[in-house]
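Suppose you are handed only these lines of text.
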Amino acid sequence: MALKITVIGTGYLGATHAAAMAELGFEVLGLDVVPEKIEMLKRGEVPMYEPGLEELLRKHVAGIEGSSGRLRFTMDWAEVGEFGDVHFVCVNTPQKHGEYACDMSYVDAAFESLAPHLHGPALVVGKSTVPVGSADRLAARLAELAPAGEDAELAWNPEFLREGFAVNDTLHPDRIVVGVRSERAEKLLREVYATPVTAGSPFVLTDFPTAELVKTSANSFLATKISFINAMAEVCEAADGDVVKLAEAIGHDERIGKKFLRAGIGFGGGCLPKDIRAFMARAGELGADQALTFLREIDSINMRQRGQMVELAREALGGGSFLGKRVAVLGAAFKPDSDDVRDSPALNVAGQIHLQGGQVTVYDPKGMANARRLFPTLAYADSATEAVRGADVVLHLTEWREFRELDPAVLGEAVTTRLILDGRNALDPEVWRRAGWTYRAMGRPTA
Ligand code: UGA
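From them, the structure of the protein bound to uridine-5'-diphosphate-glucuronic acid can be written out as follows.
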């Protein structure tokens, strides 16, 4: 009989994982503690913008015409405990207030709520990004709380999906990492992931601490690549070099690779910034803090980019104050194809200029509602053309395709001054310059 799967927590990770498990042919029950989320999901609606996710949900959510009916949602822990052979824990682990460490309260609460309902054999699989050592602790807690005792087992299976590509990354992962303590756990997870493994996804078997560390080290490596290229942009800026050419040239070396070498205002979002901080905090607890002091530098290079963008804008406007200057900001999401504005470099820059007296107008294709909620005092426009109307300078801060396809000649008619600062090195300087614009980007020659 096909395995029955539950997914606890229905954010980016959980909602996508639940829909993907249904797509792979399993019966799935998703749980969340937020009633509004569950109501939306039951209607086949997704609480965030993620390309392809709503379609996949609607294909499987029970009660929707033409769906497979394999995917249901509930708020009832007993039902979840009763239903599942395998339970995936997908709740988030945000940064703690005023600390680098991550907040484990949602993960802990999920285990405390689920375990008492595990009366028979069950595999609980942690997917949340956690400090190394958590799985060990949670396995003990599970054995203690579950009526099934040792039959309720834990495995750790970190997730590597990117926002904007969540569906594809989940259905076709570039690797599946599982930390297990028994053959039974391995066998169950091989069954869950049989389809992607047959299609070629490598299945990497590890112990608990390695599985937890794979996730935090992967995100640290990605953050390091971005801050590395941003450091090179600073040097290029000082030496009159071109960081885009430099990235292209070093990227031809397969050992270095082309990806994640786009210089600009740096990384944000709900993962990279908090993950490197939580990793440093955990290493400190383990007495290995020296090993990760370089991440402090990665973090500060990254945060510096935002300030440098503000200074580039000030300089471009004549070097004085922002008072009375009209600044158009294209982009609010932390990256394109997402409506997520958590720790968004674009909004951070917009906010800084606004707080220094600039009249900032923001436009983003999908992130407007979230941006308004976070920064209600900024002005918002309904289109790029509206945002730039009368602008003294235009800042391109999130590289949506829509912005790359803008016609500089048309936009030029709307602005006061044809001055564009590309915070993502994603526009073609030649195209803009030909249309009479002054184009500037960090780490690139001025003309
Ligand atoms: C990241 C990882 O890429 C995923 O593998 C991981 O699963 C996820 O975190 C997570 O831990 O859940 P995500 O936060 O969706 O995924 O975003 P990324 O695509 O990694 O981009 C992060 C930030 O880096 C964005 O602000 C982006 O604009 C910036 N970035 C990316 C650059 O500034 N330059 C680049 O070359 C690439």
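What can we learn from it? The pocket of uridine-5'-diphosphate-glucuronic acid is lined by residues 129, 159-163, 219, 222, 226, 260-262, 264, 266-269, 271-272, 275, 334-335 (CB under 6 Å). The chain has two domains: 4-206, 221-441.
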